[in-house]
Amino acid sequence: MTKVVGRALRVAATLTAAAIVLAAVAPERSALAHAVGVSSGEYRLDGNVVYGDLGMADRELARLLPAIDTNHDGSIDAEELAAGRDAVVRAGAAGVTVQADGKACPGSVDRAWVSEEDNGAVFQVRYTCAAAPGRLTLAMPMLDGLAPGHRHMARLFRAVAVLDRARATWTLGGAHASSGAGGIAWSMLKLGVEHILTGWDHLLFLLGLILIGGRPRALVAVVSAFTLAHSITLALAALSVFAPSPRFVEPAIALSIAYVGIENLFLEDARKRWRITFAFGLVHGFGFAGALREIALPHGQVPVALVSFNLGVEIGQLAVLAVALPLTLAARNAPWFGDRGAKALSVAIAVAGGALFVLRLAAR
Questions:
Q1: Mean pLDDT score of the chain, rounded to an integer?
Q2: Torsion of CA 256, 257, 261, 266, to 10 degrees
Q3: Which of 78, 224, 320, 336 is the one with CA 20 to 30 A from 9?
Q4: In the structure, what pLDDT confidence band is assigned to residue 32 with cuts at 50, 70 and 90?
Q5: Nearest 5°: CA angle at 150, between 147 and 151?
Q6: Chain segment 160-184, per-residue pLDDT in tens
């Protein structure tokens, strides 16, 4: 039994080290963004015409239309958008479809531009129906070309819906009216879980925190401080109270990873580590808030979405810790791992954080 456990721990440690190395040498696109993407759409009906303003991060547009990303940097700038306008117009017209009472409404893209300030692409679309609709159906074939976890926040009249691959159609009117706050809450909860599970930079930071062990009380204090801190700044950013630019937040998150890896080499007493963890948690919270800010939630939906998203982040974080913490504690007690193994992984974490910092600075 001991041999089986030892073998499992060796495999876990090897996979962890491999993940750290891959993180350090990951291409810039992976280094700068999580796999979960978001977009928003503000739709309005004027007689028989449906107008829409669609927004998405430029990296999501690059994922959707890689051919127009001519410099292969994982994002779309104004020049690339202008050069690839025809492809953008075709994708925009076909990516969102509208039906009025079961009949298709032909669509077109009126304008498309890149917002340098928000690192996003914006489209103005128009759908002309044969008559004013009694029941309107919005579909998003575009979701098939985006990340599997991509969410599209759609607003029409006073109704709001979150669309994804599993639910890519939204019907208003009749028996298929939009779901209310419950649907928003569930969608944001899932988005929070996916955001932390695909946010390898946050997970790498957590791994660095638990790697050197310490008494259970110290570990609880560290995790609690991180949770409280990122909840505070997530709320501040989502409520538009204060939100620093991702150009500063993302490199700072990378620095926090490098710092924890280096600190692990010299830290002898983890009882007071919660203090620096709280400070770094504030920075990570602004990183978490990026997904909610990109969705551009209507004011009335922010409280429900904020609580649900944060709860999802905590559920995902606890799930990871439930697996990683026992393995880490068991590994530290194994003769083949001991302090040397912990220090070796800490060095790898520090290197990965430093490499990520350089990549994110270069992308500014």
A1: 80
A2: 10
A3: 224
A4: very low
A5: 170
A6: 788 888 889 988 874 334 445 566 7
Compute the distance between CA of residue 163 and CA of residue 183 in angstroms, rounded to an integer. 10
| Dist CA 202 CA 286 (whole Å) | 12
Task: Quote the tokens at residue 20.
Answer: 């750290």
Percentage, residues of the chain above pLDDT 70: 82
155 half-sphere exposure, CB direction, 13 A CA radius: 16
What integer pLDDT is reported at residue 355 of this predicted model? Answer: 93
The 10s digit of each residue's pLDDT in 335-346 is 777 778 888 999
Size of the chain, expressed as the number of residues it contains: 364
Give 241-307 as a DSSP string: S----HHHHHHHHHHHHHHHHHHTTT----TTTHHHHHHHHHHHHHHHHHHHHHHT--GGGHHHHHH
For residues 156 and 172, the answer to whether their CB atoms sit within 8 Å is yes
Amino acid (one-letter) located at 353: G
* Token duo for residue 10: 């060796």
DSSP string, 53-99: EEEEEHHHHHHH-GGG-TT-SSS--HHHHHHTHHHHHHHHHHHSEEE
The whole-angstrom separation of Cα 277 and Cα 108 is 50
Please tell me whether residue 314 adopts helix, strand or coil conformation. Answer: helix
Q: Is the pLDDT reported for residue 3 higher than 60?
A: no
Query: Whole-model pTM above 0.85?
Result: no
Give which of 196, 195, 208 is closest to 353, Cα–Cα.
208
Pairwise pLDDT comparison (213 vs 244), residue with the higher score: 244
In the structure encoding, which two tokens stand for residue 300, read together? 């009335």
The pLDDT value recorded for residue 26 is 43
26: enclosing H helix or E strand: none
Q: Say if residues 178 and 172 touch (Cβ distance below 8 Å).
A: yes
Query: Please, which residues bridge with residue 49 across strands?
Result: 46, 128
